[in-house]
């Protein structure tokens, strides 16, 4: 068993019909999908999820965008999951993302960048538990 990361397919990628293609990239890169759900965040829940950024100038825009449509939340498992998944999704701004990364392929812009990936093992656990109960995390 590898370790875990958490991801969200963001409202832009869901609205643009990229759920299937993104899940294929994730499986193709060797991640096992441990838990998966489609849901929608209220502005309150989106604000809580991204609370670490609440002093940043883009926070309001980020919360508005993340609550603007459905998202797909998932817990993923693989050796070195957090770091390998950040490589698979590419740079935050798709203009700077490497060819073949999920953001290069599917993101529209810095603000509408298709997918989230946890930035540490600790945050992966916190974020996974934000969406999934203990019983759902097998
Ligand atoms: P994420 O948390 O969504 O996986 O993205 P990330 O780690 O690559 O980037 P982070 O620094 O955590 O920022 C969270 C999201 O905020 C938006 N952002 N906008 N306008 C701006 O300068 C700006 N900077 C960041 C991005 O959509 C980013 O994914
Ligand atoms: Mg981040």
UniProtKB/TrEMBL annotation:
Keyword Coiled coil: no
Cofactor: Mg(2+)
UniProt cross-references to Pfam families, sorted A to Z: NDK
Cellular component terms (Gene Ontology): cytoplasm
Positions of the catalytic residues: 116
Localization of this protein: Cytoplasm
Matching Gene3D superfamilies: Nucleoside diphosphate kinase-like domain (3.30.70.141)
UniProtKB keywords: ATP-binding, Cytoplasm, Kinase, Magnesium, Metal-binding, Nucleotide metabolism, Nucleotide-binding, Phosphoprotein, Transferase
Chain's role: Major role in the synthesis of nucleoside triphosphates other than ATP. The ATP gamma phosphate is transferred to the NDP beta phosphate via a ping-pong mechanism, using a phosphorylated active-site intermediate.
Listed name of the protein: Nucleoside diphosphate kinase
Source taxonomy: Bacteria, Pseudomonadati, Bacteroidota, Chitinophagia, Chitinophagales
């Amino acid at each position: 068993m590898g370790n875990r990361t958490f991801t969200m397919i963001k409202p832009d990628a869901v609205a643009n019909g990229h759920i299937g293609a993104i899940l294929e990239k994730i499986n193709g890169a060797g991640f096992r999908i441990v838990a998966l759900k489609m849901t929608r965040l209220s502005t309150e829940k989106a604000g809580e999820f991204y609370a670490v950024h609440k002093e940043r100038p883009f926070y309001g825009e980020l919360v508005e965008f993340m609550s603007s449509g459905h998202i797909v939340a998932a817990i993923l498992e693989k050796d070195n999951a957090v770091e390998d998944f950040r490589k698979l999704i590419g740079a935050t701004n798709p203009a700077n993302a490497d060819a073949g990364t999920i953001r290069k392929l599917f993101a529209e812009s810095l603000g509408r960048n298709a997918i989230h990936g946890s930035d540490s093992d600790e945050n992966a656990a916190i974020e996974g538990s934000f969406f999934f109960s203990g019983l759902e995390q097998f």
